[in-house]
Every structure is written in structure tokens, then in C-alpha cells.
Fold this protein.
Amino acid sequence: MRIATYNVENLFDLYNNGREYKEFIPNTHSKWNLKNYRIKLKNISKVIKDINADIIGLEEIESLQALKDLRMQLKRDGIYYQYFKIASYKNTTIKVALLSKIPFLYTHEIAVQSSYKYRNILEAKFRLHGEEFFVLVNHWKAKSGSESMRIVSAKKVMKRTEELGEKKNIILLGDFNSHYEENILFKRKRKLNDTDGITGINQILGTLEHKESASRVNVPYGEFYNLWYDTEENKRYSYIFRGKKEAVDSIIISPSLLSKKGMHYRVHSISVFNKPYLFKGKHIYRWQMRKKPPIHKGKGYSDHLAVIAEFIIP
């Protein structure tokens, strides 16, 4: 079973609900119109089809309509996701969503905070061949906010983990806006470090001490393992910022998925989806816009790359 996460970079629909970023107000001088919308859908669909995941978490989807339009484009392109859900209870500008070939037992939104600065987390429960597992799709606060804001989301994840049970099969995925060793990197950026060195992804999720490969690591219940440690260091990235590779998107698993009993992670299967067409020179071929004034060029994909991992269900 292949599971992936992909930040598609601002997939907005063509309806004006008043919360759009100004460059995505439809049918204005920015040229966010039917032509460019269809190109964006087609391009993102190509990536998702090539990934061919059984379950894929998506970030930066504006609305249920945008998700449905993407799903329909995927169907036209030859890949069908029968099951879909978006975290729509809070009317944030962009949201997380899920496409799946496997039916949900249920979906549930985890409210991080009432403030629109925090996006809800989308939880889905699955059962396949008698094995139950939970997928939580995250999109934590960007680096425009300090680390204390990402800690709020991390604590919500841990609270929900305690409610589900620490021995359950739990897969956290999404755009955490945190490097897998954020505790080291963010100390160089004083405006981010308002937590005395504590980070959400490392200390709160408990990934800090588990840096061995999946075949050797020993993770206690109540903590998580970041799958980036199960591949070579030069392959650990999903984003390029000012020429530097960063791993802001992750797939993070509970200890039960490291055991070979029942459902488990397939060792060394973590990878970044980095096909040549997703690059322009040394840069990720993101959705192209002229900056001043902002005008959509109708080219490109996303500023993030997808991350993929595989799981075995006996």
C-alpha cells in the first residue's frame, strides 16, 4: 500500500467567497480564470497520477469544489479515487484534504484552535485485511509564525494519539513547515525560537532521539519516528528555499508500524517524488506567476515535491 503527501500550492476554485488571496480572485487582472485553472488541475493531476498512491494527503486546497474538480481531472486522466474528504469545518483560505482508493471507516476533523491562523487536521480511519490504521493530514503554521504556533498543532496531534491509543497504527503526514531536524536549524533564526529550543516536530512528537534506519531504530510507545531517517541524507528534501534543500513535508509513524507483526512500514521505501519534469534548472518548477502585478502564466506545478512511503499489510 502506497501512501503519499503533496502540497499542491494554492489550488483555488473559480468562485469568489471573499477569502481568496488577491492573486486568486477569479476573472480579474491576475488571470486566475478558467484557462489557467484547467492547466493547474491538469498539471497537478499528472503528478498525482504518476505517484499512483492508494492514499494521498493534500495541502493547500481551497474548497470542496476544487477537490472535486481535481478528482474529476484525475478520473479523466485514468486514475480514480472513489473516496475523498476535505477539512472544511473551518473556513480557512486553504485546507487539507484526502484522496483514497480505500474506503474510510470514518473521517474526523481535529480543531487545533478557533483562530484562523491554525488549519484543522484531517483524520481518517481505515481497515484493510483486518488491520486498522489512522491517517492524520497536517498543515502546520508557516515560518511567518514562530515555533510556539507549530507546537500548538503538535500538542493536538499528541492529545489525539493518546485518545486513539499509543499502540495503534498511526500515520502522520503533511506539510509540517518543519525540517526533520528543526531543533537544530531554527536556532539560527531567532525570530522563530520563542520556545527555548523546543520544537513541535522533534520534542513534542518525540522524534528527536530516533535517528537510525527503520530496521534498527527502537521507538517507545507515545513517541513517533520520522521516516526521513530511513533514507540517505541527500535524498531528504521536499522543498528548495534560496537554493537550499529542506524537508518541510514528512511522513511520521507510530512505533507499531515498525514491527513486522501485522501492518508495517516497508523499510527504505520512503522517497521524494522528484521526476525531471518537476524541475526547472536547479529549482522546483512551481506554479509560475509574474510578481508585479501578479499574473498567472499558466505553467508549472507546485513549490513542493510529494513524499511517498509504502506499507505492507499481510
